Amino acid sequence: MDHISVRGTPARRGQQYGKLAAPCVHRCIAAYRDVFEHRAGLEWHAAVKHARAFIDEIERFAPDAMEEMRGIADGAGVPFDAILVLNCRSELMFDAARSKGETPPGECTSFAVTPEASSNGHMLLGQNWDWVPFARDVCVLLDAQREDKPSFVTIVEAGMLAKVGVNAAGLGLCTNTLVSERDAESKGVPYHVMLRALLDGESVDDARRILSSVQRALSANYLVADKSGHAMNFETIAGGREQIHATRPHGGLIAHANHFLCAEFAAIDAYVAKSPHSLTRLADMRCGLLASERLSVRRLQEILRGHEHAPNGICSHPDPAAHPLYARTTVASIVVDLTAGEFWFTDGPPCGSAYERYRSPTHVAQT
Prior knowledge:
Blueprint: E1 2-7, H1 10-20, H2 22-40, H3 44-52, H4 55-61, H5 63-76, H6 80-87, H7 89-99, E2 109-113, E3 124-131, H8 135-138, E4 139-145, E5 152-157, E6 164-167, E7 171-177, H9 191-198, H10 204-212, E8 220-226, E9 231-236, E10 244-247, E11 253-256, H11 263-266, H12 277-290, H13 297-304, E12 329-337, E13 342-347, E14 356-358
Helix pairs in contact: 1-5, 2-7, 3-6, 4-5, 5-6
């Protein structure tokens, strides 16, 4: 996985990112052309048209994000529309897939462990990010150094703004895709733009404020924690402040997968009936968390290597019988110690990769 460090204004950071990650950006665009066509019957020109409908919302909510995207396009030598499409890929893919009666591939099993439940009294957070196999070939670790807002590090598909990450204020972010019956053709801020905006926050309270401040275009789960030891899970459906259900840790623990736990939202879940492995992954994660009296980073890494209910376990591998564009694998595994400002990750499924420790001055949380 390429490590990319950028600094300066939003436009300048975007240009550096695009230039340094250009080969991966080009591969990512080509891969999503194929995904849209084969999985959703969506031609590229139609994807561009749909994505451009989000421009005004992005401009109003996150002008920095728009500058970054324009910079990425400039640096990578690709049209701005292509970078916009990448950052709206969830909305485009999920809408088109639903129109064909298909279910998009699920993403992620996440957790938070508060100081009362950790072995060293630290705030721990992490997840396995599961997605289509080609994502492994286009992912980068992006380290953004900023002066006006907290610097951050995120693992993300090249050309996209953010995914799972942590910032210099000690805020950590994990996420799970959710699908509700109310998401079709919804207006609002795209999912990956919201992920990028959350990395501007300095606390769980900031994250709640950011999520509640605008209409969101897609359902998603946001698991957020900060170095003070606070954690909260936000289940959301497309919409605004009223379409958020927040929960706090129970016994110092939170775990989540790709289905709604809130009863009101579970009634309109459009994913879990076709993909029950979300239920088994969540059960396996909870079992692993509860099996240890005190949880350490090493123990959490072991849980993330779990293969119960393979090939759709916590550590996921492509089904050999599935078409590559319909398959699913663990793209990266992440564990963060927010108290110590330490970030561990793998390139690919954690069962076959050692966790790399990444401690950059751009995102270390000072104790």
